[in-house]
Amino acid sequence: MHKNYPKYFLFIDKLNIEDIKDIKNKTAVIYRNYEKKPEIDEVKRFKNFCKKKKIKFLISHYFDIATKLNLDGFYIPAFNKKFFMKRKNYLNKFMMVGSAHNFKEIRIKERQGVNLIFISPIFKTKKQDNFLDIIKFNNLSNFSKKPIIALGGLNIENIKKIKMTNCLGIAGISNIKKLKF
Predict the structure, then answer these.
(1) What percent of the chain has pLDDT over 70?
(2) H/E stretch holding 12
(3) Residue 29, phi then psi, degrees to nearest 5
């Protein structure tokens, strides 16, 4: 049985409140900017806005900020193989999510203690020509008992195919605001 996890995840690289004003409360926002560490005050303002809108707010790469500011969670990209502290009891609602592209990365994410695994790319993206598609995606998702999120290449044309997967939700960078499955 799955906890009450969000169905939709939106990746952002700027903490701009205007970009998320239209987001519904079943969505989580993941700040993912590896080039610039965010200012603490900026993260606090963004967190407060998300809390008012009942949007989950996760951050990538800066575990110290995620735990210090008691954010909703932390995102671990596929290339990150480091192991993090186990969630403390006071952070029992703290969500750890991570991306994986293959069986080996799925096992690493499980050892890192993630609650959800994003498997990607499910469909062709602008940056990647090789993608999983439905059958390979389902095969990979069967390797874990963790809830799975479909990531990559989602658009209006292929969103209905998601119903053929055993994923809990979807994630993306731009189209996620328009897509519902």
Answers:
(1) 88
(2) strand 8-12
(3) -110, 130
Has this prediction a pTM greater than 0.85?
A: yes
DSSP 80-136: -----PPPPGGGTT-EEEEEESSHHHHHHHHHTT-SEEEE--SS--SS-S---HHHH
> Which residues fall within 8 angstroms of residue 156, CB to CB, at 6 or more apart?
175, 178, 179
Better-scored residue on pLDDT, 34 or 129: 34
Q: How many CB atoms lie within 10 A of CB 55?
A: 22
- The better pLDDT of the pair 115, 163 is held by 115
Q: Rounded distance, CA 63 to CA 89, Å?
A: 16
The residues, any chain, with a CB within 8 Å of residue 161's CB and separated by 6 or more, are 123, 134
Determine how β-strand 148-151 pairs with β-strand 56-60.
Answer: unpaired
Residue 88 is predicted with a pLDDT of 52
Burial class (CB in 10 A: 0-12, 13-18, 19+), 117: buried
Phi, psi of 117 (to 5 degrees): -120, 125
Q: Is 154 exposed, middle or buried (0-12, 13-18, 19+ CB in 10 A)?
A: buried
**Looking at the chain, how many residues does it have?**
181
| Nearest C-alpha neighbor of 137 from the set 155, 154, 123 | 123
